[in-house]
């Protein structure tokens, strides 16, 4: 259940008024949109994240066995797909990064039915699953489009081969988002664009506070702020980046239902988490703590901060030499063409 939304927009130039207007229109009276400046300062910290890679791999293994992608991923994919209507470019090749977990394949096919669709999956199990999904039964019309879907590993993507990189709800699982953005930039042709979404640091703050009150290690790894993501886009070579953010409030009727959904979304990938096995007594404490978060209507409400990013790959700029030579004749011509002072 989604209870409400709050929007924040990070836009560097007036060229993004169309997106800002769209978000304002979508926000309506019950929601809020804040427009913020894009920071261009030098990075104050390494771009690598404090993340347990082995735990992320375990989550991907469990995802490959799931019947479907998490509900929240599908909902965010739907919201992100609504933004495609304001982009005039019609990509010939679409690259769906971490396709199954992103839950946006059908939305991309609907938005760009004439495009070739390529899929990147992070593990062999997910690649096999996506290949199986791409081959429809012989009696289905989708079978004749199967040849247009190519499933590959991340390092198999050719440079300058696609016009859209779509990455829904996966960047927060990356150890180094800046390196991943640079890989997306290389995969795009000039004037191609990237669209992505991920969880932000405002997600599940009530759960963080509950763990702190109980004296437990963090319940999840830290997420990257959208200002830092915008700076990473610029440094990866993207032009006109736009970052915006919304807060989705979800609710559950019991602590057990909440824990089931959180497990579907992933697991605790913080290296600082409790390293040993938990006991039944610990679980009872957790369930009681979650129950204490319930509102007067009996439901438990938690907020998820979702950051959206969008940027284009600009044509490469010629390098400017540290020393430029101008002939005397050229200097005289430049002086002659100047208008006299008025």
Question: What does this 3D model show about the protein?
Answer:
The protein is α/β, with parallel strands linked by helices and 342 residues long. It is built from twelve helices and nine strands. A nine-stranded mixed sheet has the order 2-1-8-9-7-6-3-4-5, with helices on both faces. The C terminus is likely disordered.
- CATH homologous superfamily name? Vaccinia Virus protein VP39
The percent range for helix content is 25-40%
Spatial extent as radius of gyration: 23 Å
Shape annotation:
globular
The main β sheet shows up as:
9 strands, mixed
**Regarding CATH, which class?**
Alpha Beta
Features:
disordered C terminus, 342 residues, Rossmann fold, alpha/beta, globular, 9 strands
List the helices and strands and how they pair.
Blueprint (H helix, E strand, L loop, with lengths): L6 E4 L6 H11 L5 E4 L16 H13 L5 H11 L11 E5 L1 H4 L2 H7 L4 E5 L3 H11 L14 E4 L9 E7 L8 H11 E12 L5 H9 L12 H10 L2 E15 L2 H11 L14 H12 L8 E14 L14 H9 L6
Parallel strand pairs: 1-2, 3-4, 3-6, 4-5, 6-7
Antiparallel strand pairs: 1-8, 7-9, 8-9
Helix pairs in contact: 7-9
